[in-house]
Amino acid sequence: MKSILTFFSITLLLGISGCKADGQETLNSKEFKAKLATSGIQLVDVRTPQEYDLGYIEGAENVDFYNPEFVKNISKLDKEKPVAIYCKSGGRTKDAMKIMAKEGFKAIYALSGGLLAWEHDGNTLITPKPAEPAKTKVTRAEFDKLVTSDKLVIVDFSAVWCGPCKMLKPVLDKLSTEYSAKGVKIITIDVDESKDLSNELRVNEIPLLLFYRDGKMVEQMIGFNPETIIKESIEKHLK
After folding, report:
1. pLDDT value at residue 60
2. DSSP code of 56?
3. pTM higher than the cut 0.90
4. Cα(62)–Cα(74) distance, integer angstroms
5. What CATH code is assigned to 140-238?
């Protein structure tokens, strides 16, 4: 579904918290941080070990959602005690909550927007070892230069670990080739490599497509959208 929102609207939507269903509750970063201060809470990072090594919330145990033995590994926790879980942007957390509820966990708290929202709100991470240097870090000045064009520029915020981003890539590659003769540029920015820029632009959910004309943003699309929907927007902004 196509989403046309202002950055303020994105933040507002992602800030909605307290959604409950069968012992499951989604909290914003402030509420999540307060919950971690309570006694007996079990904190779990469901990202991959590689992501975990780049930085995690203090006290978090790593239980990789993509590991084939995720159910077995997560079941080693005390199902009677509350569990707080998070991932990078919230997608894996939602799926993990469903599995954990089915496995009998009584209380599960999820971080809305994941670590993208956590860091954007000024919270820090524990970094067990230095992150590898970014390959293509984009600064705000460079970004502004990229989108300042009289032609249509589409910026794709994504990450290598993001499943929907991987699904979107061949679609964008095809559209880039198809519309290159009309001057359309499609630029991909990794949210991890350009963390400062992503935080400044409040990129709290990926994939995120930002459409620019003459340096001004004219549309946004959140999540995976099929080729026909993206193509409709391209045609609209070419007129």
Report:
1. 94
2. B
3. no
4. 10
5. 3.40.30.10
